[in-house]
Amino acid sequence: MKNEWPLWEVFIRGQHGMSHRHVGSLHAPDAEMAIKNARDVYTRRNEGVSIWVVEANNISASSPSDKGPLYEPSESKVYRHPTFFDIPDDVGAM
Amino acid sequence: MYAQMVQSEATEEDPAKLGEFQAKIDADIKIEPKDWMPQGYRKTLIRQIGQHAHSEIVGQLPEANWITRAPTLERKAILLAKVQDEAGHGLYLYCAAETLGVSRDEITEMLLDGRMKYSSIFNYPTLTWADVGAVGWLVDGAAIMNQVPLQRTSYGPYSRAMIRICKEESFHQRQGYDAIRKMAEGTAEQRRMAQDALNRFWYPSLMMFGPSDKDSVHSAQSMAWKIKMNTNDELRQKFVDQTVPQAEYLGLTIPDPQLKWNEDRGHYDFSEPDWAEFFDVIKGNGPCNVDRLAARNKAWDDGQWVRDGLLAHAKKKRAGKVAAE
Ligand SMILES: [Fe+2]
Ligand SMILES: [Fe+2]
Ligand SMILES: [Fe+2]
Questions:
Q1: A13 in helix, strand or coil?
Q2: How many CB atoms within 10 Å of residue B292?
Q3: Which of B33, B135, B165, B254 has CA 20 to 30 A from A12's CA?
Q4: Is the Cβ–Cβ distance between B206 and B258 less than 8 Å?
Q5: Quick one: average pLDDT of B68-90?
Q6: Lowest-confidence range among A59-63, B22-26, B216-220, B229-233?
Q7: What is the DSSP letter of B284?
Q8: Does A81 touch chain B (CB under 8 A)?
């Protein structure tokens, strides 16, 4: 049996009001230590106001090979973009 | 607005904590789910965000009414995409509400049994295709007026949901204006339909901003907490000022003989909507209240076996995986 610490993905809120963003990962024995380590590894220059850690094996991700079927359908929906519609200049911003 | 007449909850808490909390808000520091917050702030936000979410969801119904009858395949695809966005808006907002400690099912049930409200505007019917244009132009236009300032609201998850929503709203308003413009520039009969749609949606759109400031008793606390950013009358005036030139361009007449540019104020003077009608619609007596709630209740009941089935399937899969390990 391996005795390796699990991998944690680290998310930092850079500024008040912003979403947490993924910044990287690290190993730690538990969530509490992961947050402490993340503080040291990722926020030494005041980069954050809040930290989230998630054990990496709890993250499910889409597979890169599904890129086509997942995202191509939205490419043909040009009308989802406001610029698809001609709005006369006289009526102001819309 | 999408959240009309949201009552602010009184708060009885440690004055020192309250002071610190207000100082944070005054300094434009966002409140996040795990931060301390007054009970009143939490309750008022659940009510407001919930009402906003319910409005997005119920608001799909009047437009969905025309998806199968859109005049062209292109208009159908556009309308479908627009209604799909509204479903997304509802979901962003429900998630924001859930961060305050209310569950999705709880808040849904409060809509279904009438304990929570949605915007009065969605209790009016869409009788013709021109109404679909009018809804995008006027109803989404009024919603944008309110949602743009809410991007700066004090509660982080609400603010971030608003930012996402605002990015998508411009498409909504523009497709509506484009659709009604086609009618206004069309045959005499199409013009008549466009004018009729404006006639019926004008005052209900003005009501979206909620009662006049002099009758709006809950504003002060919500404004201090920055969960309401402007007064109802401010936003209503802004909406009128923005919309009148858009109607003029279409050659349509705003159904208000008192409407007049006021040089001194630098704004249009206009007639107030019929507030007795507004309160009546809020109470449940609008033309479509019964239909709307019935449609939501039916969707919820009819979906029960799907929710149960998928959950049972997920549990089975998980059990299989555990057994294999
Ligand atoms: Fe929306
Ligand atoms: Fe919209
Ligand atoms: Fe909306």
A1: strand
A2: 18
A3: B165
A4: no
A5: 97
A6: B216-220
A7: I
A8: yes
Q: In B68-224, where does DSSP find H-type helix?
A: 73-98, 104-112, 129-134, 140-150, 156-184, 188-207, 219-224
| Chain CA centroid to CA B102, Å | 20
CB atoms within 10 A of CB B21: 21
8 A C-beta contact, residue B211 and residue B278:
yes
Q: Which residue among A19, A79, A88 sits closest to B77, beta carbon to beta carbon?
A: A79
**What is the pTM (predicted TM-score) of this model?**
0.92
B156-186 per-position pLDDT tens digit:
999 999 999 999 999 999 999 999 999 999 9
Residue B38 has pLDDT above 60, yes or no: yes
In angstroms, the Cα distances linking B144 to A30, B47, B302, B311 are 45, 20, 33, 37
pLDDT by 10s per residue, chain A, length 94: 578 999 999 999 999 999 999 999 999 999 999 999 999 999 999 889 999 999 999 999 998 888 888 888 888 899 999 999 999 988 988 8
The residue written with tokens 């998310």 in the block is A11
Both tokens of B176, joined, read 């509506």
**C-beta atoms of B177 and A77 within 8 A:** no
Q: What is the dihedral of CA B296, B78, B200, B112, to 10 degrees?
A: 10
Distance from the Cα of B48 to chain A's closest Cα (Å) equals 19
Place of tokens 């909850």: B9
The residue to which tokens 């503080």 are assigned: A39
A92 to B177: CB separation less than 8 angstroms, yes or no: no
